[in-house]
């Protein structure tokens, strides 16, 4: 298959894990950005329950634990990332603060209304922004917070090449105003949103560019490994060319207890149809 037309899900999961496991972050972001997002979250109780979903190798997990000084349950679908995070937790001496779990964000089993904060930096796209916001709301306590970062269009129109790329890779990409509206529709007060600066993308891309050769060598220049590297080169090239049209945006919301939960809204709709 033409690399340009491959999406990340076409690659073998363990190859992707191997590609990323040495990287600090698996998406655009930085400590400054995590810190900025945190500033919109107030009054977390001392014994708060925090979930970091799609935590990857835990760049933000360690930072959250150190800054919030509260307990965090971090989870990811890739066992290799969890292993790498476990190593970081040991090194940072945070075993008492962070627990890790190899579980999908689509199969979470937190008790209802048990969490004070859900964090999903660069990862909610795996369940889908709207679905994640709706499904996870039940796990949050009244007035609990959600903080996610998500690919977003900055313009109303865009060139065909980049529109096609995102249509194939994540068709839920949309404009800031739509994403904010969707957050409100899912039963949250949209507390804040802000665009991640370009430097966050290069902080994510540059280390990747730095280890591509070693990765290819390790995998004996297999077709699959070459194809994965080409896929990332293409993504980086597209970002460089079209960064005026899209980027990552952090969205922070707070459960709005006056809004019925989504399934209740659906039930009301169902009744009105009858
Ligand atoms: N939060 C990290 C990682 C973002 S990359 C950071 O910002 O650096 C997206 C992460 O979502 C990856 O670690 C990937 O393994 C994870 N992921 C993909 N599908 C998932 C799923 N269904 N459930 C949980 N995690 C998933």
Q: What does this protein look like?
A:
There is one protein chain. The chain contains 10 helices and 8 strands. The chain is α/β, with parallel strands linked by helices. It has a single domain (24-162, 170-197, 245-272), classed as Rossmann fold. 35% of the residues are buried. Residues 264-274 have low confidence and may be disordered. The structure holds S-adenosyl-L-homocysteine. The site of S-adenosyl-L-homocysteine has 20 residues, from helix 3. Residues 25-27, 29, 54-56, 59-60, 76-78, 81, 104-106, 121-123, 126 line the site of S-adenosyl-L-homocysteine.
Overall residue-averaged pLDDT value: 92
Helical proportion?
40-55%
Going by CATH, the homologous superfamily would be Vaccinia Virus protein VP39
What is the radius of gyration computed over CA atoms, rounded to a whole number of angstroms? 19 Å
Bound molecules: S-adenosyl-L-homocysteine
How would you describe the shape?
Answer: globular
Count of the separate structural domains: 1
Number of strands: 8
Helix/strand class = alpha/beta
Work out the strand percent.
15-25%
Q: What is the H/E string?
A: HHEHEHEEHEHEHEHHEH
At the first level of CATH, what is the class? Alpha Beta
Number of helices: 10
Distance between the termini: 49 Å
């Amino acid at each position: 298959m033409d690399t340009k037309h491959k999406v990340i899900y076409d690659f073998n999961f363990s190859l992707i894990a191997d590609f990323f496991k040495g990287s600090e972050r698996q998406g655009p972001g930085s400590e400054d950005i995590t810190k900025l997002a945190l500033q919109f979250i107030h009054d977390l109780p001392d014994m708060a329950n925090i979930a970091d979903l799609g935590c990857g190798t835990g760049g933000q997990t360690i930072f959250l634990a150190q800054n919030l000084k509260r307990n965090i349950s971090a989870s990811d679908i890739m066992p290799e990332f969890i292993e790498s995070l476990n190593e970081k937790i040991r090194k940072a001496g945070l075993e008492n603060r962070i627990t890790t779990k190899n579980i999908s964000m689509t199969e979470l089993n937190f008790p209802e209304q048990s969490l004070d904060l859900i964090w999903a930096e660069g990862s909610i796209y795996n369940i889908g922004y709207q679905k994640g916001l709706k499904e996870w709301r039940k796990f949050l306590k009244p007035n609990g917070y959600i903080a996610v970062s998500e690919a977003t269009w900055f313009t109303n129109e865009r060139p065909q090449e980049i529109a096609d790329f995102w249509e194939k890779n994540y068709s839920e990409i949309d404009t800031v105003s739509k994403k904010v509206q969707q957050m409100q529709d899912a039963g949250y007060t949209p507390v804040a949103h802000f665009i991640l600066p370009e430097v966050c993308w290069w902080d994510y891309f540059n280390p990747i560019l730095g280890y591509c050769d070693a990765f290819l060598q390790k995998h004996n220049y297999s077709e699959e490994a070459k194809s994965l590297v080409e896929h990332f080169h293409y993504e980086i090239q597209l970002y460089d060319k079209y960064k005026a049209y899209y980027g990552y945006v952090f969205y922070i919301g707070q459960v709005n207890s006056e809004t019925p939960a989504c399934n209740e809204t659906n039930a009301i709709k169902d009744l009105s149809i009858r």
